[in-house]
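Prompt: I keep going back and forth on a fold encoding question. Comparing notes only helps if you start from a blank page. Show me how you would write down a chain together with its backbone fold. Please set it down just below, with no commentary around it:
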Amino acid sequence: MSATRSDLAELAELAGREYAYGFVTDIETDLTPKGLSEEVIRLISAKKDEPDWLLDWRLRAYRHWRTLSEPNWACGDARRCFRSGRGPSPAK
C-alpha cells in the first residue's frame, strides 16, 4: 500500500503542528569544546565531583597519550578512514 498525495499532505500538516499536549522533558546538558584537551578533562572531572587524585591520574594519562604516535591504520590516514566509513564513526 503506497501513500497518496492526500496522505502525504496530511502527514506534512500534522508534522508541522505545534505539540498540543503539554508533555515536556527538561534535560540538563553540558557542552564542551570539540576534541579532547586538559580543559575538557578538568571540566568533566569537576562536573562529576571527582577527587583530586583521580583528576591528576586522568591528566597524567592524557599527557602520556599525547606523546604516542598515531597508529598505522589499514587505510592510511585515520581521518580518511572515518570519512570513508571503513573505521568507527568519530563522535560528533
Q: What stands out?
A: The helical segments are 5-16, 38-47, 52-67, 78-84.
